[in-house]
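Researcher: Before we compare anything, I want clean individual predictions. No alignment, no superposition, just each chain on its own. First chain goes here; please echo the sequence and then give the structure tokens.
Model: Echoing the first chain and its structure:
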Amino acid sequence: MDLITIIFIMNAILLILHEIESAYWKEWEILKLPGEITGFILLHIPILFILLYGLVEIARKSLAGNIFGVLLGIGGSLPFIVHVLIVSRKDKFNLPISKALIYANIVTGILLIALSINSFIA
């Protein structure tokens, strides 16, 4: 298994764990998303598609895989952007595991973006 696939899997796992925690903290309320839990769950259909189909394409080393890699890398960076830079709340996502997931996600997200772009130009 090559490095980009490993980083893709790590970023996907971290993002899934963050999204599980997001349901606990009722992220739809924090971000004022429509549809409450139903809307939140429906929002995850395209996210899960990117995770699952993207992994197949990354493993195939296809152009689509690199595109999915960039998309997932951006997705992995979003928890940091949202919960640290934009909507920082002391009463939500404040556990040590929350912070660990958010910071690990941005590291793997940036790595995945860099590896995916490098694969485009290589």
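Researcher: Okay. Second chain, same rules.
Model: Second chain and its structure:
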Amino acid sequence: MEKFDANIPIYIQVVDIIKREIVNGKLKPGDKILSVREMSIKFGVNPNTIQKALFQLEREGFIRTERAVGKYVSDNEELIEVYKKEYIHTIVLQFVQQMESMGIDRKDIIKYLEEENHG
């Protein structure tokens, strides 16, 4: 069960989790996703919260609904790739800002990353 940040609406956090599962390949284009009830159990949240998250994902194009069949991961690989790049950019920017707040400049950040990669 997920631990949710009390400062961010839960449905937004569910949206982010599902997007990450799509980006990392856990959910692939065309895969059927869990039902509202199954997701509600998986995440330990109210079905209305899941419904709101799924509506948001569909509105953004990450999932699609086939009437009377279910919801599926979008086949729009370009959308998924754009989101992946934006997500990576956000994480890297946050990391760099944290390092700079500790007095570490970008040159040293790169040096540390290279050491870690070869470590």
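Researcher: What stands out in the second chain?
Model: The mean pLDDT is 93. Additionally, Residues 77-101 form the longest helix (25 residues).
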